[in-house]
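debug: dumping io for the single-chain case to check the tokenizer round-trip. Nothing else runs in this session.
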Amino acid sequence: MVLIDGKEIAATIKTEIADEVAKIIAAGMKIPHLAAVLVGHDGGSETYVAAKVKACELVGFESTLIRFEDKVSEQELLDCINSLNQNPAIDGFIVQLPLPKHISEEKVIESIDPKKDVDGFHPVNVGRVVAGMPAFVSATPFGIMELLRRYKIETKGKSCAVIGRSNIVGRPMSILLSQKGVDCTVTLCHSRTKNLKEISLNSDIIVAALGMPEFLTGDMVKEGAVVIDVGTTRVVSDQTKSGFKLKGDVKFDEVAPKCSFITPVPGGVGPMTIASLLYNTLLSNQHKIYK
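debug: decoded output
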């Protein structure tokens, strides 16, 4: 069993990006600039955005953090997004989710210029992914594809179960895995899939992205399977200083012994999301998606 080290791969990608930034600076070209918009003081969002800012510094990017209180109006947030769309200094930006209930996440996502949508959530980028065109791919699916590629995990002709159908992970994941060159035969499963255990038992690769702690158990996985755990649910724990611990969607102790490759939680898919966001920003800076 090989434990897929997302921290190590993410660090490698950041080093590669930093090398590219050094070349950009040496050539006197514009330094990549990533902006983040944070509404409110959600603990998880605060931590995630702080990590993004730190990562920008690490690779040599410029970064901007724009804060709003929970009570900000939807129009004020949309005006900010429009300003970022028009700002030539900004190569890409993200609006951290979730947003307060009085603000439409759909309207916010659609208001972002697809050319600066480094989160890959805009319908234009999603559509381009479906069509197999150059696009900003959402960070988690992009990160998973990089893990598979860098660990040289064979995908051609393999059967794959993607468990979870969210627009951020499950659906784009199923599309990427089925594209030419990757060539998996994909079954997209969800909470209403009746024969889910049968499907997972017959799958060479399983991507668990349901958001249910320890959902995938040992009796649902065949010997030699590749298992990618996307779940990151906080559960109460008296064994940590914070009072909680992260649980994946996979019951690791049962599943890992049967796997050829598996991602841990934490330290697997998670670290790849920020690395992927930085990579998308570099692509935007170099105009490699939208010429």
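debug: round-trip ok. The chain is about 40% helix and 20% strand.
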